[in-house]
Amino acid sequence: MAESPAHRIEQALARIERAAAARSYATERLARRHAKLRARIEEAVTSLDALIARETSGAEQG
Known about the structure:
mainly alpha
């Protein structure tokens, strides 16, 4: 027995909803990873700035 058009449409909509949810999850995951990486880079730049400042002040005094 062949599936009705309405049933096939419902199945297609369910597949689309699953795909959209998966894409949304992937996008959110990527955004979280980006935020973590950005924070780590900001910390590294701050540390480098402090190191450069210490080296520069030490060179001026010596």
